[in-house]
Amino acid sequence: MALDLHVHSTYSDGLLTPEALCTLAIQKQVHTLALTDHDTTEGIASMVLAAQATALAGNQFAFIPAVELSAGDDGRTHVLGYGVDAANVPLVAACKTIRQKRLIRGTQMVEALRAIGIEIPGDYLPPPPWEGQAIGRPHIARALIRMGLVNTMEQAFDRFLEEGRPAYVPLAHLSATQAISLLKAAGAVPVLAHPMRLRLEPQVLEAFVAFLREAGLQGLEVYHPSAGRRDIPMLQGIADRLGLLATGGSDFHGDKGTRAMLGGLPGGWHTWEQDLAALRQAMLEAKPPATP
Ligand SMILES: [Zn+2]
Ligand SMILES: [Zn+2]
Protein backbone atom coordinates (compact mmCIF):
# COMPACT_ATOMS: atom_id res chain seq x y z
CA MET A 1 0.00 0.00 0.00
CA ALA A 2 1.04 3.59 -0.58
CA LEU A 3 0.14 4.46 2.98
CA ASP A 4 0.58 2.94 6.42
CA LEU A 5 -1.21 4.62 9.32
CA HIS A 6 -0.02 2.33 12.12
CA VAL A 7 3.72 1.94 12.74
CA HIS A 8 5.88 1.61 15.88
CA SER A 9 9.45 2.79 16.44
CA THR A 10 12.18 2.33 19.04
CA TYR A 11 10.39 4.99 21.11
CA SER A 12 7.97 2.23 22.15
CA ASP A 13 8.37 -1.44 21.25
CA GLY A 14 9.40 -1.22 17.61
CA LEU A 15 12.86 -2.20 16.40
CA LEU A 16 13.49 0.64 13.94
CA THR A 17 14.32 4.27 14.63
CA PRO A 18 12.22 7.00 13.01
CA GLU A 19 15.05 7.55 10.49
CA ALA A 20 15.14 3.85 9.57
CA LEU A 21 11.34 3.80 9.26
CA CYS A 22 11.47 6.67 6.74
CA THR A 23 14.16 4.90 4.71
CA LEU A 24 12.18 1.66 4.69
CA ALA A 25 8.98 3.51 3.77
CA ILE A 26 10.62 4.94 0.67
CA GLN A 27 11.95 1.48 -0.28
CA LYS A 28 8.45 0.03 0.11
CA GLN A 29 6.87 2.95 -1.76
CA VAL A 30 4.86 3.99 1.26
CA HIS A 31 4.28 7.72 0.82
CA THR A 32 2.17 8.48 3.87
CA LEU A 33 3.27 7.15 7.24
CA ALA A 34 1.78 7.64 10.71
CA LEU A 35 3.96 6.97 13.74
CA THR A 36 1.72 5.41 16.43
CA ASP A 37 4.03 4.52 19.28
CA HIS A 38 2.43 3.03 22.40
CA ASP A 39 1.72 5.51 25.15
CA THR A 40 4.31 8.07 24.09
CA THR A 41 4.63 11.05 21.78
CA GLU A 42 8.39 11.29 22.32
CA GLY A 43 9.34 9.86 18.93
CA ILE A 44 7.36 12.44 17.00
CA ALA A 45 10.03 15.18 17.05
CA SER A 46 12.66 12.81 15.56
CA MET A 47 10.12 11.58 13.05
CA VAL A 48 9.33 15.13 11.92
CA LEU A 49 13.03 15.74 11.26
CA ALA A 50 13.48 12.40 9.51
CA ALA A 51 10.40 13.01 7.38
CA GLN A 52 11.65 16.47 6.40
CA ALA A 53 15.02 15.03 5.39
CA THR A 54 13.26 12.31 3.39
CA ALA A 55 11.12 14.86 1.55
CA LEU A 56 14.10 17.18 0.99
CA ALA A 57 15.95 14.30 -0.66
CA GLY A 58 13.32 14.48 -3.39
CA ASN A 59 10.92 11.78 -2.19
CA GLN A 60 7.18 12.14 -2.08
CA PHE A 61 6.60 11.62 1.61
CA ALA A 62 4.11 12.76 4.23
CA PHE A 63 4.14 12.05 7.93
CA ILE A 64 1.20 12.06 10.35
CA PRO A 65 1.98 12.43 14.07
CA ALA A 66 -0.02 9.98 16.17
CA VAL A 67 -0.03 7.85 19.31
CA GLU A 68 -1.61 4.55 20.38
CA LEU A 69 -3.05 4.48 23.90
CA SER A 70 -3.70 1.17 25.65
CA ALA A 71 -7.01 1.19 27.48
CA GLY A 72 -9.75 -0.96 28.94
CA ASP A 73 -9.64 -3.37 31.88
CA ASP A 74 -7.23 -5.71 30.14
CA GLY A 75 -5.40 -3.02 28.17
CA ARG A 76 -6.47 -4.61 24.91
CA THR A 77 -8.62 -1.72 23.73
CA HIS A 78 -6.15 0.39 21.78
CA VAL A 79 -7.08 3.88 20.66
CA LEU A 80 -5.06 5.65 17.98
CA GLY A 81 -4.94 9.44 17.97
CA TYR A 82 -4.11 11.06 14.62
CA GLY A 83 -2.74 14.57 14.35
CA VAL A 84 -1.92 14.61 18.05
CA ASP A 85 -0.21 17.59 19.65
CA ALA A 86 2.96 15.85 20.89
CA ALA A 87 3.49 18.48 23.60
CA ASN A 88 -0.02 18.44 25.06
CA VAL A 89 0.60 18.55 28.82
CA PRO A 90 -2.22 16.28 30.12
CA LEU A 91 -1.50 13.68 27.45
CA VAL A 92 2.26 13.73 28.07
CA ALA A 93 1.61 13.37 31.81
CA ALA A 94 -0.81 10.47 31.29
CA CYS A 95 1.69 8.75 29.02
CA LYS A 96 4.39 9.18 31.63
CA THR A 97 2.20 7.54 34.28
CA ILE A 98 1.43 4.65 31.94
CA ARG A 99 5.14 4.18 31.20
CA GLN A 100 6.02 4.22 34.89
CA LYS A 101 3.47 1.47 35.52
CA ARG A 102 4.91 -0.44 32.58
CA LEU A 103 8.40 -0.02 34.01
CA ILE A 104 7.30 -1.64 37.25
CA ARG A 105 5.52 -4.38 35.35
CA GLY A 106 8.56 -5.04 33.16
CA THR A 107 10.64 -5.67 36.26
CA GLN A 108 7.93 -7.92 37.70
CA MET A 109 7.76 -9.98 34.50
CA VAL A 110 11.53 -10.51 34.54
CA GLU A 111 11.21 -11.58 38.21
CA ALA A 112 8.35 -13.96 37.38
CA LEU A 113 10.48 -15.63 34.72
CA ARG A 114 13.38 -15.88 37.13
CA ALA A 115 11.06 -17.62 39.61
CA ILE A 116 10.48 -20.40 37.07
CA GLY A 117 14.18 -20.70 36.33
CA ILE A 118 14.45 -18.44 33.28
CA GLU A 119 17.17 -15.84 33.69
CA ILE A 120 17.11 -13.30 30.88
CA PRO A 121 20.67 -12.08 30.20
CA GLY A 122 20.95 -8.40 31.05
CA ASP A 123 21.92 -7.31 27.55
CA TYR A 124 18.89 -9.03 25.98
CA LEU A 125 16.63 -6.21 27.16
CA PRO A 126 16.91 -2.46 26.61
CA PRO A 127 19.15 -0.97 29.32
CA PRO A 128 17.39 0.03 32.54
CA PRO A 129 15.83 2.21 33.73
CA TRP A 130 13.78 1.78 30.53
CA GLU A 131 12.28 5.23 31.01
CA GLY A 132 12.27 6.26 27.40
CA GLN A 133 11.50 2.87 25.97
CA ALA A 134 8.58 1.73 28.11
CA ILE A 135 9.55 -1.92 28.19
CA GLY A 136 6.68 -4.09 27.09
CA ARG A 137 5.91 -7.72 26.58
CA PRO A 138 7.38 -7.67 23.03
CA HIS A 139 10.81 -6.83 24.47
CA ILE A 140 10.61 -9.85 26.76
CA ALA A 141 9.21 -12.04 23.97
CA ARG A 142 12.21 -11.14 21.79
CA ALA A 143 14.58 -12.03 24.63
CA LEU A 144 12.88 -15.44 24.98
CA ILE A 145 13.32 -16.02 21.24
CA ARG A 146 16.97 -15.04 21.46
CA MET A 147 17.42 -17.49 24.33
CA GLY A 148 15.99 -20.23 22.10
CA LEU A 149 13.10 -20.94 24.46
CA VAL A 150 10.47 -20.15 21.83
CA ASN A 151 10.58 -19.64 18.08
CA THR A 152 8.12 -16.83 17.53
CA MET A 153 6.54 -13.85 19.26
CA GLU A 154 3.21 -15.71 19.25
CA GLN A 155 4.75 -18.67 21.08
CA ALA A 156 6.32 -16.38 23.65
CA PHE A 157 2.92 -14.86 24.41
CA ASP A 158 1.12 -18.24 24.37
CA ARG A 159 3.54 -19.92 26.72
CA PHE A 160 4.69 -17.15 29.03
CA LEU A 161 3.19 -13.71 28.63
CA GLU A 162 -0.58 -14.02 28.08
CA GLU A 163 -3.04 -13.82 30.93
CA GLY A 164 -2.91 -17.08 32.87
CA ARG A 165 0.71 -17.78 31.85
CA PRO A 166 3.62 -17.79 34.30
CA ALA A 167 5.12 -14.39 33.48
CA TYR A 168 1.86 -12.49 32.99
CA VAL A 169 1.58 -9.44 35.20
CA PRO A 170 -1.58 -7.35 34.96
CA LEU A 171 -1.33 -3.63 34.30
CA ALA A 172 -3.91 -1.00 35.30
CA HIS A 173 -5.07 1.00 32.28
CA LEU A 174 -7.10 4.03 31.36
CA SER A 175 -10.69 3.35 30.43
CA ALA A 176 -11.37 3.56 26.70
CA THR A 177 -13.49 6.67 27.21
CA GLN A 178 -10.69 8.32 29.22
CA ALA A 179 -8.25 7.55 26.40
CA ILE A 180 -10.63 9.09 23.85
CA SER A 181 -11.12 12.23 25.98
CA LEU A 182 -7.36 12.64 26.47
CA LEU A 183 -6.75 12.32 22.74
CA LYS A 184 -9.50 14.76 21.81
CA ALA A 185 -8.18 17.30 24.31
CA ALA A 186 -4.76 16.88 22.64
CA GLY A 187 -6.23 17.81 19.26
CA ALA A 188 -6.19 14.26 17.93
CA VAL A 189 -8.75 12.25 15.96
CA PRO A 190 -9.46 9.07 18.00
CA VAL A 191 -9.68 5.82 16.05
CA LEU A 192 -10.24 2.32 17.49
CA ALA A 193 -7.23 0.17 16.57
CA HIS A 194 -7.43 -3.45 15.37
CA PRO A 195 -11.05 -4.11 16.39
CA MET A 196 -10.74 -7.84 15.60
CA ARG A 197 -8.26 -8.23 18.44
CA LEU A 198 -11.12 -7.55 20.85
CA ARG A 199 -12.52 -10.93 19.80
CA LEU A 200 -16.12 -9.78 20.07
CA GLU A 201 -19.09 -11.07 18.10
CA PRO A 202 -20.01 -8.60 15.34
CA GLN A 203 -23.14 -7.29 17.09
CA VAL A 204 -21.36 -6.90 20.41
CA LEU A 205 -18.47 -5.17 18.64
CA GLU A 206 -20.85 -2.77 16.90
CA ALA A 207 -22.54 -1.92 20.20
CA PHE A 208 -19.15 -1.31 21.80
CA VAL A 209 -18.01 0.90 18.92
CA ALA A 210 -21.31 2.83 19.10
CA PHE A 211 -20.68 3.37 22.80
CA LEU A 212 -17.19 4.66 22.07
CA ARG A 213 -18.54 6.95 19.36
CA GLU A 214 -20.77 8.57 21.99
CA ALA A 215 -17.56 9.24 23.92
CA GLY A 216 -15.99 10.90 20.87
CA LEU A 217 -14.53 8.08 18.79
CA GLN A 218 -14.26 9.16 15.15
CA GLY A 219 -12.84 6.20 13.29
CA LEU A 220 -12.33 2.46 13.02
CA GLU A 221 -9.14 0.75 11.86
CA VAL A 222 -10.79 -1.46 9.26
CA TYR A 223 -7.64 -2.49 7.37
CA HIS A 224 -5.28 -4.18 9.84
CA PRO A 225 -3.56 -7.58 9.47
CA SER A 226 -5.77 -9.01 12.24
CA ALA A 227 -8.84 -8.61 9.99
CA GLY A 228 -9.50 -11.53 7.69
CA ARG A 229 -11.08 -11.29 4.27
CA ARG A 230 -14.59 -11.75 5.68
CA ASP A 231 -14.02 -9.38 8.59
CA ILE A 232 -13.25 -6.37 6.39
CA PRO A 233 -16.79 -5.93 4.96
CA MET A 234 -18.21 -6.44 8.47
CA LEU A 235 -15.92 -3.72 9.89
CA GLN A 236 -16.55 -1.40 6.95
CA GLY A 237 -20.29 -1.90 7.54
CA ILE A 238 -19.93 -0.84 11.17
CA ALA A 239 -17.91 2.22 10.15
CA ASP A 240 -20.50 3.17 7.51
CA ARG A 241 -23.52 2.68 9.77
CA LEU A 242 -21.97 4.66 12.59
CA GLY A 243 -20.56 7.40 10.34
CA LEU A 244 -16.96 6.67 11.33
CA LEU A 245 -13.78 7.17 9.34
CA ALA A 246 -12.14 4.01 8.01
CA THR A 247 -8.37 3.78 8.47
CA GLY A 248 -5.70 1.16 7.90
CA GLY A 249 -2.23 0.27 9.06
CA SER A 250 0.14 -2.67 9.32
CA ASP A 251 1.08 -2.34 13.03
CA PHE A 252 4.66 -2.77 11.88
CA HIS A 253 7.13 -3.33 14.72
CA GLY A 254 10.09 -4.56 12.69
CA ASP A 255 10.03 -8.18 13.82
CA LYS A 256 10.86 -10.91 11.37
CA GLY A 257 8.46 -13.83 11.31
CA THR A 258 5.37 -11.77 12.08
CA ARG A 259 2.76 -10.90 9.52
CA ALA A 260 3.11 -7.16 9.90
CA MET A 261 5.24 -5.70 7.10
CA LEU A 262 5.57 -1.97 6.52
CA GLY A 263 2.76 -1.04 4.12
CA GLY A 264 1.45 -4.62 4.38
CA LEU A 265 -2.27 -4.04 4.73
CA PRO A 266 -5.06 -6.48 3.92
CA GLY A 267 -6.21 -6.22 0.32
CA GLY A 268 -9.33 -4.47 -0.84
CA TRP A 269 -8.85 -0.93 0.46
CA HIS A 270 -10.02 0.66 -2.77
CA THR A 271 -11.19 3.87 -1.11
CA TRP A 272 -7.93 4.67 0.65
CA GLU A 273 -7.48 8.01 -1.06
CA GLN A 274 -10.92 9.28 -0.02
CA ASP A 275 -10.49 7.78 3.45
CA LEU A 276 -7.10 9.46 3.88
CA ALA A 277 -8.55 12.78 2.70
CA ALA A 278 -11.42 12.39 5.20
CA LEU A 279 -8.95 11.66 8.00
CA ARG A 280 -6.89 14.72 7.08
CA GLN A 281 -10.04 16.85 7.08
CA ALA A 282 -11.00 15.51 10.53
CA MET A 283 -7.46 16.30 11.75
CA LEU A 284 -7.85 19.89 10.56
CA GLU A 285 -11.13 20.20 12.42
CA ALA A 286 -9.80 18.57 15.60
CA LYS A 287 -8.41 21.74 17.09
CA PRO A 288 -7.54 21.45 20.73
CA PRO A 289 -9.62 23.71 22.97
CA ALA A 290 -7.94 27.06 23.67
CA THR A 291 -6.02 26.98 26.92
CA PRO A 292 -6.84 29.85 29.26
ZN1 LIG B 1 -2.36 -2.04 19.33
ZN1 LIG C 1 0.15 -0.85 17.35
The fourth-level CATH homologous superfamily of the largest domain is Metal-dependent hydrolases
Shape: globular
Low-confidence stretches: none
Name the hetero compounds present: zinc ion
Computed structural class: alpha/beta
Please, how many helices? 9
**How do the SSEs run, as a string of H and E?**
EHEHEEHHHHEHEHEH
CATH C-level class of the largest domain: Alpha Beta
Fraction of helical residues: 40-55%
* Arithmetic mean pLDDT: 92
Question: What does this protein structure show overall?
Answer:
- The protein is of the alpha/beta class.
- It has 2 domains: about 5-85 and about 175-285, TIM Barrel, CATH 3.20.20.140; about 95-160, no CATH class.
- The chain is about 40% helix and about 15% strand.
- It has 9 helices and 7 strands, in the order E-H-E-H-E-E-H-H-H-H-E-H-E-H-E-H.
- The chain has helices spanning about 20-25, 45-55, 90-115, 135-145, 155-160, 175-185, 200-215, 230-240, 270-285; strands at about 5, 30-35, 60-70, 75-80, 190, 220-225, 245-250.
- It has a 7-stranded mixed sheet with strand order 1-2-3-4-5-6-7.
- Strand 6, helix 8 (about 230-240) and strand 7 form a beta-alpha-beta unit.
- Helix 1 packs parallel to helix 2 (about 45-55).
- The model has no long low-confidence stretch (mean pLDDT about 90).
- The chain binds zinc ion (2 copies).
- One zinc ion (ZN) binds next to loops.
Which short descriptors sum up this protein?
single chain; 292 residues; alpha/beta; TIM Barrel; 2 domains; 7-stranded mixed beta sheet; 40% helix; globular; binds zinc ion
